[in-house]
Specification:
Among the domains are: 32 residues; 94 residues, no CATH class. It is 34% helix and 12% strand. It contains five helices and four strands; from the N terminus they run ααββαββαα. Strands 1-2-4-3 form a four-stranded antiparallel sheet. It is elongated and about 70 Å long. The relative contact order is 0.09.
Length: 185
Amino acid sequence: MTTPVAPRRGRPRKFSGPSRPVTLTLPVETIEALTALDSDLSRAVVRIAHSDVRRRHAAAELATFGRRAVIIVNASRSLERRIGVDLVPLPDGRALISFEEHTTPDTLELRIEDGLEDPGLSPADREIFEGILEILRTARRSGEVTLLRRNIIVLEGRSRPRPRARSGRRPHTSTKPKKHQRSSE
């Protein structure tokens, strides 16, 4: 014998799984972008979140445009510290690798190999290092690819305010009025 399920009172469920209300403060342009995706903000947020979760990126991969490609990695402080590169952030949380002008792709490859020998390297960082190494090795061994070094522009904020520019004048320190002297001409 089955008991009939009483109809649920109140507003119908928006999502199939458990949910709870959340208050967010968002920029107006973000709200406009979300409502362009779905008129219901919560459904728009869920759509974006689920599309990013399903489309997980490799720890290191190539982003190709025409005949050129760049290596994009998951952001890793360990990569910056141990290998001596700078990561340039991308909007999706990943980063481009940049390095000093005197560093070559061969030097980078050797540093990554050395970094992989460290037993204290986290599994996530190990995956990034191995991914970059595989890309560099494949490119180096291929007769079809040339590794080129290019400069990029990186804007870095200052950690402290800049001192004000000084004018050539000395600040007035006397409180007594100055006597005007006539110069002889």
